[in-house]
Write a structure and sequence with these properties.
The two termini are 58 Å apart. The strands form two sheets. Strands 1, 2, 3, 4 and 5 form a five-stranded mixed β-sheet that branches. Strands 6-7 form a two-stranded antiparallel sheet. By secondary structure, the chain is mostly helical. It is built from 28 helices and seven strands. It has three domains: 168 residues, no CATH class; 62 residues; 423 residues, no CATH class.
């Protein structure tokens, strides 16, 4: 077809190497004489290809539109503009004579091993062909035309069935599971409406009539938006809380969203791909490139809150029930998580279409259809990246596993503080040693193979991410022990801040030299940075939290503890769950390459954050808070009642309790629950 000349011209223009540039017009002329109709393709495809050529010569509108919808050689090829997209919607609107066929948009991936280049050059080309032509027809014809005439080193061609789209294939019929998800949403919406109406009715008739409510009334009121919205949006900070943690949580979440938006941009069509690939070489981009440190912030504050609340409750002589400790955590996090997984597996794929849609969305659906149970068991951090449903959910699994293991540290830390501290130090040393060993054995800073080889070896496992969490447990214990008996001097605060800023700076910018394209790989340097920069970040952030709690945070504490951070931090969990779907939809709808600068990446990330926050208000009010209240007001009380009827020896095996003179018991309840989710 005519468009293939443009494709070949693009490949040859970049593939000339150091010799003289090839005669591109001559090559185009030869290719134009070899239409799809004459290739090694099916008879029907060949016949419709012939119809296309004849009608194109006659100037028939549908044939001209089909030709117009295919990719053409763009400007900026030497800047890495290898995305030759054409017009997706125009192609799908084409109808052949007598409706014998329609326009079909196929994306061909061309990879050239070019002389003088270390890596293969890749081109993504949009072709508008008759719908009677299969993906293998298009691939076979391209291979026959281009491989023999491609640049030195050869040209590999790939056209997969999922890369070809017609208007019919884009009109996806609803499946039973899609209807099930819509039914679930309808039921929850009805519960919110009825619960809110019932709450308003009770307030008007008898405001005090909710204390003796039955279980079903309590469950219905848990969905009341009138009751749940004010606490969610309140800017007040509860007394005795670590207010600065809310600011750390939200700002880390904002960092996550912008970082993920930046990472996803590199998978989209770009008119300046060479330039965007060098973003990481700018020193100020280290803040964005090192966005993965935000998860270490979550691990740290998760450990801080867990240990702080655990030790506070032990001081108050509140018993600790291991069963409810685990059950509460699971119920706290899972309902809204399961809804998002269900959404990924069903309706998400139906929200749009485009040449990039399947690349971003279809595989995400497959992962959740095939691997959802690993997510609900919180073991998906050991899946490969290609099989992880909701790619960022690895953190939830790793954090949950830390939570499961935390009593092995918290109980000794409470009963035998020295032994507990020894366990923490030993765990941090062992985790660092594991990370050093694995980083040395694999690709280190080489992110081209990092996702494939290192995802579930060095990035997501508990044994390599334990340092921030263990440090958080130690800090939470320290803050509770020193809450009223310690004053941090100005001199000590100055030294601490200087050290913390040096550690944070080293974590953020220490890898700058390693990310330069001219950097010569040095194993010792890479291992040192990769293995230690997370620990350095966590240590610096730990001081920040400690100083803020001790009244030495200054303007940093004012920012982190301000009232606005309170509601924003309460939305963080749902932002974390939902933001990647929003990014995927946004980028999956892209039709044409765009020039992307650093400012565009930042604005895109901030836009994704705002949209995620808006969606998270709905998710939080409809799913997260109601089930949290049902757990607190119904399930917890029933478990407590059931526990109180157990034999004394079994009850002691489930609970830990040590009475301290002068401290009250747990308000008459046999069960107390710790909730320290970084997103709660």
């Amino acid at each position: 077809m005519l468009l293939l000349g443009a494709v070949l011209g693009a490949a040859l223009a970049l593939g000339g190497g150091e010799g003289a540039a090839p005669d591109v017009p001559a090559v185009l002329e030869r290719v134009l004489r070899e239409p799809l109709a004459l290739g090694n393709v099916s008879l029907q495809c060949k016949g419709h290809g012939g119809d296309f050529l004849q009608e194109l010569a006659n100037g028939t509108e549908w044939a001209v539109r089909m030709h117009d919808a295919s990719g053409k050689t763009p400007a900026g090829l030497m800047r890495g503009s290898g995305d030759i997209m054409g017009d997706y919607d125009e192609c799908l609107a084409v109808r052949g004579p007598g409706a014998s066929f329609s326009g079909q948009y196929c994306t061909a991936l061309l990879s050239a091993g070019l002389e003088g280049r270390a890596a293969a050059a890749r081109y993504r080309v949009g072709l508008c062909v008759p719908s009677s032509c299969s993906a293998s027809d298009v691939e076979a014809h391209l291979r026959r035309l281009l491989v023999a005439r491609g640049p030195r080193g050869g040209l590999a061609v790939q056209v997969r069935p999922d890369d070809c789209h017609t208007a019919r294939s884009d009109s996806r019929p609803y499946r039973p599971q899609d209807y099930a998800f819509l039914a679930l949403v309808a039921i929850i919406a009805a519960l919110v409406i009825v619960g809110t109406g019932y709450d308003i009715y009770l307030k008007k008739t008898d405001p005090k009539d909710t204390e003796g409510a039955s279980a079903w009334q309590t469950a219905l009121l848990a969905f009341s938006a009138r009751r749940n919205a004010p606490p969610l949006l309140s800017t007040a900070s509860p007394s005795g809380s670590l207010a600065c943690v809310n600011g750390v949580r939200f700002l880390s979440m904002a960092w996550v969203v912008v970082f993920h938006a930046h990472a996803a941009v590199h998978r989209t069509p770009r008119a300046n791909a060479d330039e965007t690939s060098r973003f990481k070489e700018r020193w100020y981009m280290m803040i964005l490139v090192n966005g993965t440190l935000s998860t270490d912030s979550f691990f740290l504050i998760g450990g801080v809150l867990l240990a702080y609340i655990f030790m506070r409750d032990r001081k108050k002589n509140q018993p600790f029930n291991l069963l409810t400790f685990y059950l509460h955590r699971y119920i706290r996090l899972t309902p809204v998580y399961a809804v998002v997984i269900f959404f990924y597996a069903t309706i998400l794929y139906r929200l749009g279409s485009g040449p990039m849609w399947d690349e971003f969305i279809k595989d995400e659906r497959r992962k959740c259809v095939d691997w959802w149970f690993n997510n609900l068991l919180y073991v998906n951090n050991y899946n490969s990246n290609n099989n992880t449903c909701i790619v960022q959910s690895w953190y939830l699994a790793t954090d949950m596993q830390f939570y499961w293991l935390s009593p092995l540290v918290l109980y000794p830390l409470w009963r035998w503080p020295k032994a507990g501290c020894l366990i923490i130090v030993t765990g941090m040393v062992a985790s660092t040693a594991a990370l050093v060993t694995l980083t040395a054995a694999y690709s280190g800073i080489d992110f081209s193979s990092w996702y494939d080889d290192n995802w579930n070896l060095t990035y997501t496992p508990v044994y390599t991410r334990a340092v921030p969490y263990l440090l958080g447990l130690a800090l939470g214990y320290l803050l509770q022990v020193l809450r009223k008996d310690f004053a941090l001097s100005k001199a000590a605060a100055a030294v601490g801040w200087a050290t913390a800023l040096a550690l944070i700076g080293a974590a953020l910018f220490g890898g700058y030299r390693l990310r330069q394209s001219a950097y010569g790989y040095q194993a010792a340097e890479v291992v040192c940075y990769d293995a230690l920069h997370r620990a350095a970040w966590a240590a610096g952030l730990a001081w920040l939290v400690f100083a803020c709690v001790q009244g030495r945070g200054g303007p940093v504490n004012s920012l982190l503890s301000c009232g606005l951070m309170q509601p924003l931090s309460r939305l963080s969990y749902c932002v974390y769950l939902s933001h990647f779907a929003i990014i995927y939809v946004r980028l999956g709808l892209v039709r044409t390459p765009a020039h992307i600068g650093v400012g565009d990446v930042l604005l895109e990330g901030l836009l994704m954050l705002v949209v995620s926050l808006a969606l998270s208000v709905v998710l939080t009010l409809a799913f997260e808070v109601p089930f949290m209240l049902i757990d607190k007001n119904i399930l917890t009380k029933r478990i407590a009642a059931a526990t109180s009827r157990l034999p004394a020896d079994l009850k002691r095996s489930l609970s830990l309790q040590r009475r301290d003179p002068g401290l009250p018991s747990c308000a008459g309840s046999s069960v107390c629950i710790v909730d320290s989710s970084p997103a709660s």
